[in-house]
């Protein structure tokens, strides 16, 4: 059964002390972003559309949050970064504990239709730390459309409380192209704000889990 409790190793981490999130500086260089963007465009032919409007009753993590977006399993270029010792060591410094990739490859998420979004949730079991890199965003840079919405004061607590009062303690992070967001995705409630018409938002998503062996 899922628990609100953050494992001790992660609780004592620099990342948790910052509220469960931070921008990961100096990781996604322009060259990396160009390579990932090109791969994401190539993988789009295999992408699948998700559009769910059913209410989510999950209180802890996982569940079935309302969402609308297109996604694809990434290719070899992202895989090489995902499995790299360099990135994992960087994440372990911030997460304060040994980590391992949750899968062989991550995903690309395309918020491409007006109103595409992802409602408040915590990530599934096995996705304790999440790495989100913005590869394309054609919206007005002063807008918060497509922003990642975080609730740092709600690392422990029922998700229904945020569904009833979504602005309570919300922090909206608008990622510029090339910026990477690191978050305790399995514990920090988060969402993606609806995108604007023509925004064409593309992100790379990686998940890591706490190494317990």
Concise account of the structure shown:
Helices cover 22% and strands 28% of the residues. It has 213 residues and is an alpha+beta fold. It has a single domain, classed as Jelly Rolls.
Unreliable residue stretches: none
Number of individual domains: 1
DSSP helical segment count:
6
Order of helices and strands: HHEHEEHHEEEEEHEEEE
CATH domain class = Mainly Beta
Structural class: alpha+beta
User: How many individual β-strands?
Assistant: 12
Name of the CATH superfamily = q2cbj1_9rhob like domain
So, CATH architecture? Sandwich
The name CATH uses for the topology is: Jelly Rolls
The residue-averaged pLDDT reads: 95
Structural Rg: 16 Å
Helix percentage range? 10-25%
What does this structure look like?
This protein has 213 residues and is an alpha+beta fold. The protein is 22% helix and 28% strand. The chain has helices spanning 8-11, 14-17, 30-43, 76-82, 85-95, 159-164, and strands at 21-23, 48-52, 67-73, 99-101, 107-111, 117-121, 129-136, 148-150, 171-173, 180-183, 190-192, 201-210. Strands 1, 2, 3, 4, 5, 6, 7, 8, 9, 10, 11 and 12 form a twelve-stranded antiparallel beta sheet that branches. The longest helix has 14 residues, at 30-43. It is globular and about 40 Å long. The protein starts with 7 loop residues before the first helix and ends with a strand.
